[in-house]
Amino acid sequence: LVYGAQYFQERPKDTNVIRGQTAVLKCVIGDRKGLVQWTKDGFSLGFNRTIPGLDRYSITSSHPNEWNLMIVNAALEDDAVYECQVLPKDGDGKLQATATLTVL
């Protein structure tokens, strides 16, 4: 079997959220081979669907290709630039897509 290169089916979009509400930044990946992580202002949030030390943050999905970042009870410190990254693997290059979360 020959598979295509990994690619974004849906990239995260700049999003506004009201303090106390839930924000979801979408990231949907096709033909994924590499590990997926989110970063916040350049700092890794790790490769797991639960994010240690950040109880309000989690990676959610209704489909195996989804790696959506959900932030509940949004606070001013969540106002940041987030990036969904797929690491290179088996000759596929790294993917990265950024979105700004603005907390109002």
TrEMBL record:
> What keywords is this UniProt entry annotated with?
Disulfide bond, Glycoprotein, Immunoglobulin domain, Membrane
The protein's predominant localisation is: membrane
Tell me the ranges covered by the Ig-like domain, including all copies: 6-102
Q: How does it sit in the membrane?
A: Single-pass type I membrane protein
**GO annotation (BP), single:** cell-cell adhesion
User: What does the UniProt entry say about where the protein is found?
Assistant: Membrane
Q: Which SUPFAM superfamilies match?
A: Immunoglobulin
InterPro entries per the record? Cell_adhesion_signaling, Ig-like_dom, Ig-like_dom_sf, Ig-like_fold, Ig_I-set, Ig_sub, Ig_sub2
Q: Which domain of life is it from?
A: Eukaryota
A UniProt-annotated Pfam family = I-set
Membrane as a keyword? yes
Full protein name: Ig-like domain-containing protein
Q: What taxonomic lineage is listed for the species of origin?
A: Eukaryota, Metazoa, Spiralia, Lophotrochozoa, Mollusca
